[in-house]
Specification:
Blueprint lengths: L3 E5 L4 H12 L3 E6 L2 H11 L2 E4 L5 H14 L3 E6 L14 H30 L2 E6 L2 H5 L5 H21 L4 E8 L5 H4 L3 H9 L9 H12 L10 E4 L7
Parallel strand pairs: 1-2, 1-4, 2-3, 4-5, 5-6, 6-7
């Protein structure tokens, strides 16, 4: 029986690329998001089951994971990809608008998903958890003190969880993307995109598939001796 993978934020951009790559590798894949129209469209396009789960809400996560496992199967692979931004300079940020929502989704969501899924992995003595972070969590970025803090926090979270989960044969790793061409970045002005390309040593903007390939590698049986690591995939733009 194929192993089951759940990808959060899996209907667009990097998440969709990850879900498709895992399906191509033979896994049974489910995705979650909070927009029903996007879930329905993605399922229609790919045949991948979609579930409405608010990762910032532990009760939604517990109910959603239970539904996935009853309909699809026990979750062997968890990819925490979902995240949001609320950019702004520190002097203009507020707790209510810029800080609390980012912490709740980007960091709290990672906790909620792992806290709910890990016990089953421990019981079955096998699991892969891959947390998608960001280059800006490693190097910092003006206007993103909130976002960068959450992504750096996920890396520390992942290293600690890797130590806890290792005895059960569960690996926990991060993939840290650089500048990736998604619907949001594709809408940037051409001159801005050109400037970004000049900053990338490999001479091109990344594609969702570039990140998906890294995630898929860490999910393989053969990657079972890699844990607590962060794989940077950024075309050489930042070497950590």
């Amino acid at each position: 029986m194929a192993r089951v993978a759940l990808v959060t934020g899996g209907t667009r951009g990097i998440g969709a690329g990850i879900a498709k790559a895992l399906k191509a590798d033979g896994y049974t894949v489910a995705v979650c998001d909070v927009v029903d129209d996007q879930l329905e469209a993605f399922t229609k396009e790919t045949g991948i089951a979609g579930y409405n789960i608010n990762i910032a809400d532990i009760e939604s996560v517990q109910a959603g994971v239970a539904k996935v496992e009853s309909e699809v199967g026990p979750i062997d692979i968890l990819v925490n990809n979902a995240g949001i931004t609320r950019d702004g300079l520190m002097v203009k940020m507020t707790r209510e608008k810029n800080w609390d929502p980012i912490i709740a989704v980007n960091l709290g969501g990672c906790f909620n998903m792992c806290n709910t899924v890990l016990p089953g992995m421990n019981e079955r003595k096998w699991g892969r958890i891959v947390n998608v972070t960001s280059m800006n969590g490693q190097r910092g970025q003006p206007g993103q003190t909130n976002y960068s803090a959450t992504k750096a926090g996920v890396q520390g979270f992942s290293r600690s969880l890797a130590l806890e989960a290792a005895r059960a044969g569960v690996t926990v790793n991060c993939v840290s993307p650089g500048f990736i061409l998604t619907e949001m970045t594709a809408a940037m002005k051409p001159e801005m995109l050109e400037m970004m390309v000049k900053m990338i040593p490999l001479g091109r903007i990344g594609q969702p598939e570039d990140i998906a390939n890294g995630v898929a590698f860490l999910c393989k049986e053969e990657s079972g001796w890699i844990t607590g690591e962060t794989m940077s995939i950024n075309g050489g733009q930042f070497m950590y």
